[in-house]
Design goal:
This protein is α+β, with helices and mostly antiparallel strands. The protein has 4 helices and 7 strands.
Length: 147
């Protein structure tokens, strides 16, 4: 498995992965295209296996924090360390920057993602009632202090 920065050429693969994942952020193609813009500063990583994009992570810098916007893993790569590899690479990069913390929201029912965040030491700091749509669901707010 290779984790690397995404390029605009990866956009079709990102869209395909997002469409196959029920829990992914369902953004438009234009919204995904803006991930490659530098304002606000963003991190977009992909995980490749056998020359195919199997997962990706998107985050944006907000002051001295990163908001982890999404992690999407293909059905074929789940439970094989793809999410762990992406999150580890992202956190290593974040720790080498001027960022003090990482925060995120996750569906309350997304137990695999929540377990991943717990594994890396994220702390649940709140809840947003009925934050998600289709289906309607609460968001759990997590934070990891890096300093």
């Amino acid at each position: 498995m290779l984790v690397r920065p995404a390029t605009p050429a990866d956009l079709p693969a990102l869209l395909a992965l997002e469409r196959e994942s029920a829990t992914a952020a369902h953004w438009t193609q234009q919204q995904y295209q803006t991930l490659f813009d530098s304002n606000p500063p963003r991190v977009l990583l992909v995980l490749e296996e056998e020359s195919a994009v199997q997962a990706f992570l998107a985050a944006r810098k907000v002051g001295h924090e990163f908001e982890l916007e999404t992690i999407v893993v293909s059905h074929h790569a789940r439970r094989r360390g793809a999410g762990t590899s992406l999150l580890r690479a992202f956190l290593d990069m974040a720790r080498q920057s001027d960022v003090h913390a990482v925060f995120l929201e996750v569906r309350e029912s997304n137990a695999p993602a929540r377990a991943l965040y717990d594994k890396f030491g994220f702390q649940q700091t709140g809840r947003r009632s009925r934050y998600y749509r289709n289906p309607e669901e609460d968001a759990m707010i997590y934070r990891l202090d890096l300093r």
